[in-house]
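re: the backbone from monday

yeah here it is again, tokenized this time
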């Protein structure tokens, strides 16, 4: 669960999850942002939500966007490393500056 003290920049949301699907979960996330971060005082930008789904029909895509998935971040399954990198690169300029150093694999 998100709390006012937790900094989350990106969420990869599976649209077809059991119990609560990704569309309902994204709607809940957006409502929580409004309640926990009123007037966006503690975050300059909202959490980026990437939709991950094998359901690429127009109805599903539209439902994702209406729920609050960021329009540029709809990823059809199966997702590849290259597609994931492209999606993250697209979001990177809009994310807050990193507060920790990235570790490189050796």
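seq for it, each position gets an aa:
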């Amino acid at each position: 669960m998100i709390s006012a003290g937790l900094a989350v920049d990106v969420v990869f949301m599976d649209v077809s999850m059991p119990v609560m699907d990704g569309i309902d979960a994204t709607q809940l996330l957006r409502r929580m942002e409004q309640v926990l971060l009123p007037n966006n005082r503690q975050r300059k930008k909202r959490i980026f939500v990437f939709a991950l789904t094998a359901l690429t029909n127009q109805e599903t895509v539209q439902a994702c966007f209406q729920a609050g998935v960021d329009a540029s971040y709809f990823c059809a399954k199966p997702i590849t490393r290259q597609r994931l990198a492209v999606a993250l690169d697209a979001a990177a300029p809009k994310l807050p500056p990193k507060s920790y150093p990235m570790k490189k694999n050796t």
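Residues 22-36 form the longest helix (15 residues). Strands lie at 10-14, 48-53, 74-76.
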